[in-house]
TrEMBL record:
PANTHER family: FAMILY ACETYLTRANSFERASE, PUTATIVE (AFU_ORTHOLOGUE AFUA_7G00850)-RELATED (PTHR43441:SF2), RIBOSOMAL-PROTEIN-SERINE ACETYLTRANSFERASE (PTHR43441). This is N-acetyltransferase GCN5. Signal peptide: none annotated. Residues 37-191 form the N-acetyltransferase domain. Keywords: Transferase. It holds the Pfam family Acetyltransf_3. PROSITE patterns: GNAT. InterPro entries: Acyl_CoA_acyltransferase, GNAT_dom, Ribosomal_N-acetyltransferase. The lineage of its organism: Bacteria, Pseudomonadati, Pseudomonadota, Gammaproteobacteria, Enterobacterales. GO terms for molecular function: protein N-terminal-serine acetyltransferase activity; protein-N-terminal-alanine acetyltransferase activity. The keyword GTP-binding does not apply.
Length: 244
């Protein structure tokens, strides 16, 4: 709740004893279906194979980079991105095959304000639309909010990238608005949609995703019994305390 200063001007809610947060590290996060771990050069070969299972380059349309067409160039890209501290790239390891099947990153890392963005999301067809996809995102969210105690977790995407925006909304991100003409990408204008989860919303998002991931939410064929959207809607209706 906002308050007023000595000049009777409204200012933001007080945050007592605020301290800068820890910088993310290349941590390993283990789930029931997958593990999220730091990208390494040793992942390059199998990761390249996984992301090139697509029969065309349509997945790359809204990404800021062009497709990488050979393993040597991909290995060079991996070698470069693992040498920097922002973004920090992570791979998703399938427990059944022990192989990397996608990657994403923590980026625009701002420990002074407790803000970080998840980006550079490239999930292969082996990962997209699976329970591992949701679990991987939850593992990284949980690291940011529960372990690092950040206040804000961001998702940005091309405004025309409807699948990306819908994926964020499904996970519990709230749409904040559109930054018009924010970038020029591959010779085309890009308007950028901004979405976020903040710390006061995390308890509902966390509870909802854990309920969705529960084995009791799936039948013997692995089909979900209740959608994540339905679970989140119910939890938002019943939550009156803001406490998990």
């Amino acid at each position: 709740m906002n308050c007023k200063n000595e000049f009777n001007q409204e200012v933001g809610a007080p945050i007592p004893e605020w301290k800068n947060k820890q910088y993310p590290v290349r941590v390993t996060l283990k789930g029931n279906h997958c593990t999220v771990e730091a990208l390494k050069l040793a992942h390059a070969n199998e990761l390249y194979n996984a992301i090139n299972l697509d029969t065309d380059d349509s997945y790359w349309t809204w990404l800021t980079r062009e497709p990488i067409k050979n393993k040597s160039d991909f290995s060079q890209w991996v070698e470069h991105v693992i040498s920097v501290d922002d973004p920090i790239f992570y791979v998703v390891i399938d427990h059944k095959t022990n192989q990397p099947i996608g990657y994403f990153a923590l980026m625009r890392i701002d420990p002074n304000n407790g803000v970080v963005e998840v980006g550079h999301v490239h999930f292969s067809k082996l990962l997209r639309g699976t329970i591992m996809s949701t679990e991987a995102h939850w593992l990284l969210m949980n690291y940011v909010f529960t372990d690092l105690k950040y206040r804000r977790y961001e998702w940005k995407c091309n405004s025309l990238n409807v699948p990306s925006r819908n994926a964020a909304l499904r996970l519990g991100f709230k749409y904040e608005g559109r930054f018009r003409q924010s970038m020029v990408v591959k010779g085309h204008n890009r308007d950028t949609d901004w979405l976020s989860i903040i710390d006061s919303e995390w308890h509902i998002v966390n509870q909802s995703i854990k309920q969705w991931l529960s084995p009791s939410n799936f039948d013997l064929m692995g089909n979900q019994l209740r959608s994540l959207n339905a679970i989140q809607n119910d939890n938002n209706k019943t939550d009156v305390t803001g406490i998990n």
